[in-house]
Amino acid sequence: MVPAGARIPSVPAHIAKATVTWFGGAGFSIGLDAIVNSGQVLRGDEANLLAQVPGYLVMNLRAAYQIARPLSVFAIVSNLFDADYATFGVLGDARPVLGPSYADPRFLGPGAPRAAWVGVDVNY
Fold it and tell me: What is the pTM of this model?
């Protein structure tokens, strides 16, 4: 029997996403995205006994300029503030690979670091 309030591993209790975009004159726009996840139970910890994978907040920035009707240029910065976060966690035995001195069964999947790029959109 599963006790009331037990959490399903790898599923955050709360997820929020928000976007704010400002459309300026002459085809210019700039926007900010926020992604928030609460902590989550490690996969393999179905009894919810271990510390959770911490929650996180990631902000993304984007700007665009429409040159002509079908053509625009854009710039994107993902993880604007270079947050250090994990997107999931799992339990495992690393001793066969890392040796007997490695006793921590927690493995965390790191989130993407800051990245930036520019591009061109063509729409028909």
Answer: 0.84
